[in-house]
Amino acid sequence: GAGVSQSPSNKVTEKGKDVELRCDPISGHTALYWYRQSLGQGLEFLIYFQGNSAPDKSGLPSDRFSAERTGGSVSTLTIQRTQQEDSAVYLCASRPSLHNEQFFGPGTRLTVL
Amino acid sequence: AQSVAQPEDQVNVAEGNPLTVKCTYSVSGNPYLFWYVQYPNRGLQFLLKYITGDNLVKGSYGFEAEFNKSQTSFHLKKPSALVSDSALYFCASSSTGFQKLVFGTGTRLLVSP
Fold this sequence. Notes:
The structure holds two protein chains of two kinds.
Chain A: E1 5-7, E2 10-13, E3 19-24, E4 31-38, E5 42-50, E6 65-69, E7 75-79, E8 88-95, E9 103-104, E10 108-112
Chain B: E1 3-5, E2 10-14, E3 19-21, E4 24-26, E5 32-38, E6 44-50, E7 56-58, E8 64-68, E9 73-78, E10 87-94, E11 102-103, E12 107-112
């Protein structure tokens, strides 16, 4: 079946611009996660959605970062007023209920010039 | 707080030889431990997990991991390495098995022909 998909695969933007990254989880998966992978910081958790519960936003690095999940499916990660330190690969993962494994998408590589 | 350490940035092994990629953890309560592999320009792929039960966990592609509570370790092993095993390997923990993953810094495995 189809895996987790993310779009765009690459995004180049100028400092100060806003960007939106999209994640389509595996159908039926109730949990969705965003992570960031960068050379300096490794793999970092950003935000976690589980069903209709309030999301765990504890990993968002600043108030320029936000995410939403519409209809329990597609999620969008928004970064406002991008900075060069936001350059990284943003990974999305989904997980079915009562299972532990997270299934990762291919990521979006964000470059802020 | 939970943390995972991968003490080796890179592991080199000849094809056909056994391989070990090391991981130690620090968690409160029961540990939920995972191994993921990342190939170039790809997302993370799940290899195996330890939740409870047998200390030797078998996973995908012939990999296995040994959970050692007294040494707080969860080393990844394979009896006979393949060149195609060359990739970046991440150890991770989760506080309940369903929450966010906390990753180690990753270990690059290089298998030479």
